[in-house]
């Protein structure tokens, strides 16, 4: 696959109509980017898809609309109920489970894992256990959940299965590639985009500057989609 890089001035929402109540991550640039990658994958009625950290259920709904058998997992009960509602609204069948990332990942049961995990570097020493920050806080290096998705996907995928994951360049695409490679998978960045800072990054700007992750002139964030394949 050819890696594309582009600057987009605004979020271009594509996909089903979704409800996203307060406290549930609403589809944004990263969702759009991962949706494009998902729609490029070969999916049929025999494809088992796992959506890790489903949030609103946007990606799970799209995969189901493409014909896949879909399981979605989230640690937030509000997200679980939202994903179930959105599946009903779009008249697709999805199994939505409440639980931690690892709960559905043993047994090499899936052909495709998709994930838009929390990835924003944040100053708190511990990850939040409740509230809206659960949807974006990725720990001090942004990799607390990204690393777990890499590890969980390797356990969840059948031979030849694929992982599609989106995250910020602030937490390092090279680190993700290296981690997936060390797990025996073949991994590449297949898409890139620059997007303007949203409210969360604006709020964290001073701390990000102090950490050397951005400079005072930075106003856009790089997002990447990583595709990894199980041998």
Spell out the key features of this protein.
8 strands; globular; 231 residues; eight-stranded mixed sheet; Rossmann fold; alpha/beta; single chain
Architecture overview:
The structure is a single chain. The chain has 231 residues and is α/β, with parallel strands linked by helices. The protein has one domain (4-8, 18-229): 3-Layer(aba) Sandwich (Rossmann fold), CATH 3.40.50.150. The chain is built from 6 helices and 8 strands; from the N terminus they run E-H-E-H-E-H-E-E-H-E-H-E-H-E. It has helices at 29-38, 58-65, 77-89, 144-156, 173-182, 199-210, and strands spanning 4-7, 48-52, 69-74, 94-98, 110-115, 157-168, 186-196, 220-229. The protein has an 8-stranded mixed sheet, with helices on both faces. The longest helix is centred in the middle third of the chain and has 13 residues, at 77-89. It starts with a strand and ends with a strand.
Order of helices and strands: EHEHEHEEHEHEHE
Give the domain tally. 1
Tell me the name of the CATH homologous superfamily. Vaccinia Virus protein VP39
Question: What structural category arises from helix and sheet content?
Answer: alpha/beta
In terms of DSSP E residues, the strand content is 25-35%
**What is the CATH C level class, in words?**
Alpha Beta
Task: Please provide the count of β strands.
Answer: 8
Q: Indicate the CATH topology.
A: Rossmann fold
Largest sheet: 8 strands, mixed
Assembly state:
single chain
Mean pLDDT: 87
The rounded distance between the terminal residues' Cα atoms is: 17 Å
- Helicity range: 25-40%
Q: How would you sum up the global shape? A: globular
Spatial order of the strands in the main sheet? 1-7-8-6-5-2-3-4
Q: Count up the helices.
A: 6
Instruction: Report the radius of gyration as a whole number of Å.
Output: 16 Å
Secondary-structure arrangement, i.e. CATH architecture: 3-Layer(aba) Sandwich
Low-confidence stretches: 1-13
């Amino acid at each position: 696959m050819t890696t594309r890089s582009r600057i987009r001035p605004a979020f271009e929402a594509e996909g089903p109509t979704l409800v996203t109540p307060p406290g549930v991550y609403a589809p944004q640039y990263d969702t759009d980017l991962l949706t494009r990658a998902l729609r490029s994958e070969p999916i049929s009625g025999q494809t088992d898809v796992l959506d890790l950290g489903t949030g609103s259920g946007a990606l799970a709904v799209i995969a189901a609309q493409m014909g896949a058998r879909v399981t979605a997992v989230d640690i937030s009960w509000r997200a679980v109920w939202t994903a179930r509602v959105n599946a009903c609204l779009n008249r697709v069948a999805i199994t939505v489970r409440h639980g931690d990332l690892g709960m559905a990942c043993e047994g090499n049961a899936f052909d495709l894992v998709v994930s838009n995990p929390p990835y924003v570097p944040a100053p708190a020493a511990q990850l939040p256990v409740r509230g809206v920050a659960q949807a974006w806080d990725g720990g001090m290096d942004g990799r607390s959940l990204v690393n777990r998705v890499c590890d969980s996907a390797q356990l969840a995928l059948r031979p030849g299965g694929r992982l599609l994951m989106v995250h910020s360049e602030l937490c390092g695409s090279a680190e993700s590639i290296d981690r997936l490679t060390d797990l025996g998978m073949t991994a590449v960045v297949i898409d890139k985009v620059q997007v303007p800072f949203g409210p969360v990054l604006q709020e964290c700007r001073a701390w990000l500057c102090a950490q050397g992750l951005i400079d005072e002139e930075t106003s856009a964030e790089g997002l990447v989609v990583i595709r990894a394949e199980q041998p």
